[in-house]
Amino acid sequence: MTLKRLILVLALAAFPGVAAAQSCLRDCVNGQIAATASDIEIKDAALACRQTCEDKARVALERDGLLDKAANCKAELLTTDELRNVRAASPSFYVQSNVFIWDAKNPFPDRVLTKIEVSAQNLDLNDVGFTGTGLVPPSGEGAFVIPGFYDGYPAVRFAAKVQKIWACKIR
């Protein structure tokens, strides 16, 4: 066991950026939420941070001459295989204080991800859908934040699932 810990410590020391690497949204939210934050403060911070990160993505798209295409494109629903590729490339979403947060990674070099649909169950165990918007640049990272995401009883929270993703082809 001591050998495993030593290897882990050496690996983290050799590659310090790997341990500290977080998404734009998580970096921003971590700097704004205190341990005593209310649900409303958490929701407001998540939405403000999503906007900050999207603004950075827009600047990068504008620099590459792609912002107009991204702003004026008609989003199309990804196929099941494409949806699986995005989910496989991205870390798991999480829900905190009824705010759904997903740091999505876009594996496509020619599209921006713009919208998601998430299903969950209400207290009557009926399926309900939530829609969130975001801006995830080609081959980049971004975030989807859905405030007011109530995912039912604690025992069925694992029923939440990203069901649909829309993307715009810009290249």
> Largest sheet, described in full?
4 strands, antiparallel
Oligomer: single chain
What is the total number of structural domains? 1
Separation of the first and last Cα atoms: 50 Å
Q: Radius of gyration in whole Å, from Cα?
A: 18 Å
- Helix percent reads 25-40%
What does this protein structure show overall?
This protein is of the alpha+beta class. It has one domain. The protein is built from 6 helices and 7 strands, in the order αααααβαββββββ. It has helices spanning about 1-15, 15-20, 25-30, 40-65, 65-70, 80-90, and strands at about 75, 95, 100-105, 110-120, 125-135, 140-145, 160-170. Strands 1-7-4-5 form a 4-stranded antiparallel sheet. The protein has a 3-stranded antiparallel sheet with strand order 2-3-6, sandwiched between helices. The longest helix is centred in the first third of the chain and has 25 residues, at about 40-65. Residues about 1-20 have low confidence and may be disordered.
